[in-house]
Amino acid sequence: MTGYDFTLAGARLTALASGALWWADHRLLCVSDLHLGKSERHARCGGSPLPPYEGRDTLRRLETLVTALDPATVISLGDSFDDDAAARTLPAAELDQLRSLMGRRRWIWIEGNHDPAPVAFGGETLAELACGPLTFRHIAAPAASAEISGHYHPKARLRSAARPCFLLDRSRLILPAFGTYTGGLRSTAPALTALMAPDALAILTGPTALPVPMPR
To answer: What is the pTM of this model?
Structure first.
């Protein structure tokens, strides 16, 4: 697995090129903003049709990570489902795949703004999680430190293409969205420039995890 190694609050972490976070010392894998059921919710709410395979694609990529790393704990960092109804109506094949991934490992669902209700098919649902020196939550708290969050789906432009990215400074890490069809917010957006320190990095995902100064 290719990634960018860094330290936050003394924890040695790796931002994987896939957009997931790996904490090897705890065998902990963290992903954010899966948005499973997005195409179903989009159709239910009267939106234009989306190809209905986004859940399978998201779970396939997650399965690749779980198989390669064999984590003891998986944290899904909020907005795991596009809304609570999408969680209840997940197709049977995707539900079976997800339950297979959950297996005998600890699986933690962090509540998001899209999916605040507990998940009915296993794992733990928490508002946030403190683990060692780090706190995992869905939306960054402006005054927090040693924080891992998601929510914003950050992207940054390198040459002519915008790529999903992690945003990292001395206080926090914001993960990119892992789900297919999730879109993103440019790192130049005021919501992100206000959160991140002037010397923050954007760690671009793709074939390799590429750290660059955060575009502002």
So the answer is: 0.94
